[in-house]
Amino acid sequence: VEYPADEQNSFNINRIAADSFSLSSKDEKYAINKPYEQNFLKQFTAFFSNISFEAFDNHYLQKDSMLHTMPFCIFTITEKDNSVNKVNVYYMPVSERSKQQFDIKGNEMTYDIDHYHASIHGDKDFVIIQYYVFGKLFRTYKDFFFKPPVPAVKKG
Q1: Distance CA 113, CA 98 (A)
Q2: What predicted TM-score, i.e. pTM, was given to this entire model?
Q3: Which of 48, 105, 113, 155 has its CA 20 to 30 A from that of 136?
């Protein structure tokens, strides 16, 4: 998972065995030298088993120009047979179909917070994806490390 505008959050997961994975930062300078949670990696990889997009949007007028911009997120999955599936995710501009047009201060929103565009099949197809479905995949490198609970403050 790569975040081109925020490389410290990008990471690689490699399958070692059926229920064993390794985690590394995309860039070694952001490596965290602490144990990561194997269960977090298992759960994350399981999220990919039932992911779908909302609709094809190959006739989107801004498709070509969007494909020349930096994606928000890139998912690259190498299968057991070494075939590669890549999904480039782009922010979707607010449109008349966007549920939220303004932020809490009344300013016009720039991007749709519920939908994204994505290119698949080597950029041959352009699709609409929902945050509701893909949101669980937008994890960062730090998310796989154990975070102890914050102790409750005693009153009295």
Answers
A1: 8
A2: 0.86
A3: 105
